[in-house]
Amino acid sequence: xxxxxxxxxxxxxxxxxxxxxxxxxxxxxxxxxxxxxxxxxxxxxxxxxxxxxxxxxxxxxxxxxxxxxxxxxxxxxxxxxxxxxxxxxxxxxxxxxxxxxxxxxxxxxxxxxxxxxxxxxxxxxxxxxxxxxxxxxxxxxxxxxxxxxxxxxxxxxxxxxx
Length: 162
Fold this sequence. Notes:
162 residues, alpha/beta, globular
């Protein structure tokens, strides 16, 4: 099954409604935003991080206009050093290329070893948007359904303040 097809099938199986917008490939949040102007929902960015030894992995989801404070992430995770994971690690852990990281990549993580963090600020929004494992579509779904999806694919998540 293709990467998007797995997302669609899982959401349908969980009876989670969603809206899809198809668009040309978008590698940045700015590009993706230009295709979805006027549609309700917080624009998210998802960052895949790891510690220095590549023994722990983190998925951080926040408003795409916000800047990630690596010092705060280090404090939250208890890591001495934390960095963006390499493209190789992203492919190994989520079977995704760079530019399409989102909560839907968790479907591809067989080890279930990625810790998920949401910025508290976006959890108050009614809807969120993500790339659904491809950069030619943007998916919108209710925030509560994002959390339902995560729990149903076998993950816990933490809501933190940046």
